[in-house]
TrEMBL record:
GO MF term list: lyase activity
Pfam families in alphabetical order: ApeI-like (PF22818)
Name under which the protein is recorded: 3-hydroxyacyl-ACP dehydratase
InterPro entries assigned: ApeI-like, HotDog_dom_sf
SUPFAM superfamilies: Thioesterase/thiol ester dehydrase-isomerase
Residue intervals of the ApeI dehydratase-like domain: 14-95
Length: 120
C-alpha cells in the first residue's frame, strides 16, 4: 500500500452517493523519487493508478484490483515539489461485473490523469 508512505489523505468528501473526492499530499521525500527521477521527481503512472485503486477500495470496503482499463490518459506529469497536493475524484458504480469507475487526478484546472475502467 502507498497510503501513509507515498501519499497522505488530507481530506475526503462524498458529495453524492457513489462519488468521492479525496485531497492527498505526496511525500516528496519518498525513495521512489530518487529513481524516478533524480533532480526531476515525477509521480509514476503506476503509483497514480495504485492510489486510485486504494482510495476506491477504501470507500467501497472491498479489496479491489484493476480488471480492465477501458481508457487511461496521462495528460500532465506531477512534480511533487511543484504540486504537493492533488484531488482524486472518483465516480463509481457496482455492477455484476465489478466496480466500474471514472477517475480524475487533478489540481485546480490542471488534469494529470483520466481513467475509466473496471475493478474487481
Amino acid at each position: 500500500m502507498l497510503a501513509g508512505k507515498f501519499y497522505t489523505v488530507i481530506a475526503q468528501q462524498q458529495p453524492e452517493a457513489q462519488v468521492v473526492h479525496t485531497t492527498i499530499a505526496w511525500n516528496g521525500d519518498h525513495a521512489i523519487f530518487k529513481g524516478h527521477f533524480p533532480d526531476q521527481p515525477v509521480v509514476p503512472g503506476v503509483c497514480m493508478m495504485q492510489t486510485i485503486q486504494e482510495l476506491l477500495s477504501g470507500v467501497t470496503g472491498r479489496n479491489l484490483l484493476v480488471k480492465k482499463a477501458a481508457n487511461m490518459k496521462f495528460l500532465n506529469m506531477i512534480d511533487p515539489r511543484q504540486t504537493p497536493q492533488v484531488t482524486v475524484e472518483i465516480k463509481y458504480e457496482t455492477t455484476e461485473e465489478g466496480v466500474k469507475a471514472n477517475a480524475v487526478i487533478k489540481h485546480d484546472a490542471t488534469v494529470f490523469l483520466k481513467f475509466q475502467g473496471l475493478f474487481k
